[in-house]
Amino acid sequence: MDIFLQGIIKAIELLITFDTEVLGITWLSLKISGTATFISLFIGVSIGTAVALNDFFGKRVVISIINTGMGLPPVVVGLFVTMMIWRSGPFGFLEILYTPYAMIIAQAIIATPIVMGISLAAIQNLPPNLRLQMLTLGASRLQMVWVLVKESRLPLLAAVMAGFGGVISEVGASIMVGGNIKGYSRVLTTATVMETGKGNFDIAIALSIILLLLAFIINFMLTQIQQRQRPQ
Amino acid sequence: MTNFPIIAVQSLIVKRGKVTVLDIDRLDIVPGRTLALIGPNGAGKSTLLLTLAGLLPATSGGLFFHAKPIGDRSSLDMLRRNVAVVFQEPLLINDTVYKNVALGLKFRHMDARQTAERVEEAMTNFGIAHLAKRSAKTLSGGEAKRVSLARAFAISPGVILLDESFNSLDPPTRETIIDDLQKTLQKTKVTAILAQHDREETLRLANDVAVMKEGRIVQAGTAAEVFNQPADEFVAGFVGADTILEGLVMKSIAGLMEIGVNGHIIEASGNYPQGTKVHCCLRPEHITVTRAVTGKTSARNIFDARVEKIVRQAYFYKLILDCGFRIGAYITLPSFEEMDIREGSLLKASFKATAVHVIKSGA
Questions:
Q1: For residue B85, which residues of chain A lie inside 8 Å, CB to CB?
Q2: Regarding beta strands B216-222 and B208-213, do their DSSP bridges make them parallel or antiparallel, or are they unpaired?
Q3: Residues 147-166, chain A: which have Cβ within 8 Å of B?
Q4: Are residues B344 and B225 both part of a single domain?
Q5: DSSP single-letter state for residue B124
Q6: Does A129 touch chain B (CB under 8 A)?
Q7: Are B108 and A138 within 8 A, CB to CB?
Q8: pLDDT above 50 (res B1)
Q9: pTM of the full predicted structure?
Q10: Which residue segment(s) compose the domain that B221 sits in?
Q11: Is the CB of B53 inside 8 Å of chain A's CB atoms?
Q12: Residue B293: left (phi > 0), alpha (psi -120 to 50), or beta?
């Protein structure tokens, strides 16, 4: 039990002393995962809504692909992104391998299908006539879509939570495309993996607690918004 | 005001897959009047409403708004901006009552002052001004329905379409909402088209009636015409002439016919020649039931009747009587108790010759 106790004491110590390295790692984790979630929100909601509102040949296949994407293994994404931005890869000229940009791209690819799948289901779950009702009230197509997205804001917040939760806690893709470079691309999950490998369980536990706290705080804030929005 | 149709439909066909769901030869919507589309489930009432609102494309034929053909994007937008639809479910957004009523005006980018005026007037017409700040999701079914009606009227539409709007409401709520709708229609003079099931509501709200069956209009006319002179057996059954008897004209002199029905003679107004096979339609409210016929009566048809079945309804009883042929009749609760009617009771059933609507068989 000592090992856990030591870890918790170390975590508290790191937190109350505002350890600059830990703060830096935490801030970078937030920046990378926050940006990736934001990008996934933009792409996921747009495509999810478009798929939900339009009938086209092969729609069910597309929905199945999106739903499969919701469980995309981060290491597969990591491998794919690494190959794409490898020096000799199609986007090698960008020279972003082992940078936070590569991590943002990988995390956005992981989060986008999650956000897309939830938005698609949310829009499809609205009353079918709501869309027609908006059109008969004189809404343009853009106004109609905006109302429908606003009406789905509760499940969309769930999508944000799921997307953010998915990327802040993933390690496979981040380590593969980010390289875990100290002070540059080291985030909470990659640092935890490294410290565990070195046998520094106290620091690894401390980092894990911070990661859990961070995920809790973000989700707590979003839940507060979600519950306030809920019809009484 | 001109009687030039605000909406006109010509040879309109709507197909779903290979199935024709709507086949309307001609329908003119007269401005300022209320038309009720009635018919059984699947008759095409809602499909016709959606087509008139420009929400369902026609496979062929013409739809005209103020004589302008509707087809391309701009004409569709113009139609949609002039037509309001109230669906069966209220379809309110998760916001306050005020913002819901103002929604159509917001889509039109109307300024705040004008919006406030319109919204307040619409809310007052439907008795929901006191709910303005309430969240729409906390409303009762009746209140939500009032909000959806106020929202439709707030945009001052040229035509308002109501799709079986009162189905899910309890009778007292329904009653008061229909009352408010009736007053608002009279006040605003908005042209209205209602898809309806209920006969009584149709009679209260509609000037004109179109009876639909399998995607077609089988009879259209004023409410009085359709209800009192149904064109065929189907319409007769649907508009509530629930006694429909097969008969043969035995004699026809000077607008009065004697019709043989199951060995009995019914006198009816009309001019069909002797030997014509006909259907005699009788509405239950046109039949008088007594213990015995005393004094003078203007009814030309008086029959001995045995009570076969008693059905309790909201404000009266419905009696199924065997007069040698079966007829249905209404009786008020006090009369029912006073006459001590039971199943098997022997009564007199009488009705005037003018109460019998005669349709030529196969018409």
A1: 132-133, 136
A2: antiparallel
A3: 147, 150-151, 153
A4: no
A5: H
A6: yes
A7: yes
A8: no
A9: 0.77
A10: 7-233
A11: yes
A12: beta
B149 to chain A, closest Cα gap in Å = 12
Question: Which residues in chain B touch residue A139, judged by CB atoms under 8 angstroms apart?
Answer: 107
Please tell me the distance in Å from A151's CA to the nearest CA on chain B: 6
Q: Looking at the structure, do residues B182 and B269 belong to the same domain, yes or no?
A: no
Residue B83, burial from CB neighbour count under 10 angstroms (0-12, 13-18, 19+): buried
Cα B237 from chain centroid (whole Å): 13
Among the partner-chain residues A127, A136, A147, the one whose CB lies closest to the CB of B80 is A136
Asked if B349 and B337 count as a contact pair (C-beta separation under 8 A), the reply is no
Question: Touching check for A126 and chain B: CB below 8 Å?
Answer: no
The closest alpha carbon to A120, from A161, A142, A160, A149, belongs to A149
Residues A13-57 pLDDT 10s: 887 888 888 889 999 999 999 999 999 999 999 999 999 999 899
Which residues of chain A have a CB within 8 Å of the CB of B84?
Answer: 136-137
Neighbours of B32 (CB within 10 A): 15
Same domain assignment for residues B101 and B168:
yes
CA distance A143 to chain B (A): 7
For chain A, domains (ranges, CATH) are 2-226 (1.10.3720.10)
- Answer for the pair B164, B42: CB distance below 8 angstroms, yes or no: no
Q: Does B57 touch chain A (CB under 8 A)?
A: no
pLDDT of A206 higher than 90: no
B277 in helix, strand or coil?
Answer: strand
Write the ipTM. Answer: 0.77
Across chain B, what does the average pLDDT equal? 89
